[in-house]
Amino acid sequence: MPIKVRELSATEVRRLTHSISKTTGKEYNGLHSVGGVAGLLLQVTPSGAKSWVYRTRIAGQRRSVGLGGFPDVTLAQARDKARVVRDKIAEGIDPIEERQAVRRELLAARLSTKTFADAMADYIGMKSTEWKNPRQAQQWTNSLTTYALPHIGKIPVRDIELGHIKAVLDPIWQTKTETANRVRSRMETILGWCATHDYRSNENPAKWKGYLDKVYPAPGKIKKRGHHAALAVDAIPEFMTDLQKRTGTAARALEFLILTAARTNEVIGDKRIGKLGITWQEIDLKAKVWTVPAGRMKSGKQHKVPLTEAAVDLLKNMKPGAPDAMVFAGGNGAIPSNNFLSALLKRMDQPVTAHGFRSTFKDWARERTAYADEVSELALAHVNSDATRAAYARSGLIDKRRQLMQDWEQYCYHGKAQEAGEVVSIGGGAA
């Protein structure tokens, strides 16, 4: 049993200080018995902080029970708390375990009330540090804020069931299928993350396989995946004739984009995230190759583009700049606005997108030439896991691609029927 000591007064308690080693002079926490209840101590740290500790034995083990800080908990209150703990122990109750159980219940209650909006914010905030594209966090936020939060934003994630998910998806599954499936996938991810963190324990009602695939028709069976509006292959020669008559950086950027079958942000950059477009240091006019750095490629891998004679001439006619200067810059050398090319197409009265010219190129290569599909796929920098296409990708097929792009240039400017390109086998011979 703890030793009983003289009861200290409140004034004496205020005067208690930390301890100092007589041999080393080192300061350390002082523990002072204050009397009134056997085992009641005041702990004083070298910083001057004071707190109450009740030392006793529970089930044969020496235990310390914290009773709060001084002076928030007065001497009289500390003695009352110590007596309550002492009485509970006498009744067979472990006050430490009891306190931990209360904390667990409070934590569980806090976790169980986390809403989908809270979970969404936490998840996006956590993942945004690793997402490669800074716009990804905004895209998640925008889609979920628009379609999910009005229905499930205020609902605790533990309570979200199939009916809630259907309330989000029913209005858009048939009319905005691609968007609906993207929202569904993001809800599934967030609810899965919630389960990992013990915010919910039920089956994920937003998962597709084995669950929502029994409720909705597959996205691919509702309609074909939407594509960027593209110009018909037959319309390209006339369009290019019109484009060449136009002056200005936007016209030349679009012409270069078409000749190289490149993506918009690879050519003019992306002002929204401060990403530069093509710079002079990426161009080797002697070798007639444009090397697009990995950071600007969708695949995250460096991409070499063979340049045709027309593309080289176009670059030579542009005003040269420093190695890190953009070839197709906006005003004052800045990154062009995001509607730089779309505004030009609108002025030309063309209801298409700049990105759509990649589809036109692909249609031309597939329908009007005999080049192997892998050659045009590599020209478009499409990522393929297929072993055959991977074999093509390893070699780069730069010479065959150069011929493909030269044929594409010929068609763009002259509209002549192309002679069938030779189909190349993996080994390099004619197939």
Going across the biggest sheet, name each strand in turn: 3-4-5-6
- Number of helices in the DSSP assignment: 18
In CATH terms, the superfamily of the largest domain is Intergrase catalytic core
Estimate nothing, just give the exact number of structural domains.
3
The CATH architecture name of the largest domain reads Orthogonal Bundle
Distance between the amino and carboxyl termini: 95 Å
Query: What structural class do you assign from the helix and strand content?
Result: alpha+beta
Summarize the main sheet. Answer: 4 strands, antiparallel
Order of helices and strands: HEEEEEEHHHHHHHHHHHEEEHHHHHH
Rg: 36 Å
Say how many strands there are. 9
Q: CATH class of the largest domain, anyone? A: Mainly Alpha
Indicate the low-confidence ranges by residue numbers: 417-431
* Shape designation: elongated
Layout of helices and strands, plus pairs?
Layout: H1 10-15, E1 19-20, E2 27-28, E3 30-33, E4 40-44, E5 50-58, E6 61-70, H2 75-90, H3 95-112, H4 116-127, H5 135-147, H6 149-152, H7 162-169, H8 177-196, H9 219-222, H10 236-244, H11 249-260, H12 264-268, E7 283-284, E8 289-292, E9 303-306, H13 309-316, H14 340-347, H15 356-368, H16 373-379, H17 387-395, H18 398-414
Antiparallel strand pairs: 1-2, 3-4, 4-5, 5-6, 7-8, 8-9
Helix pairs in contact: 4-5, 4-8, 5-8, 10-18, 11-13, 16-18
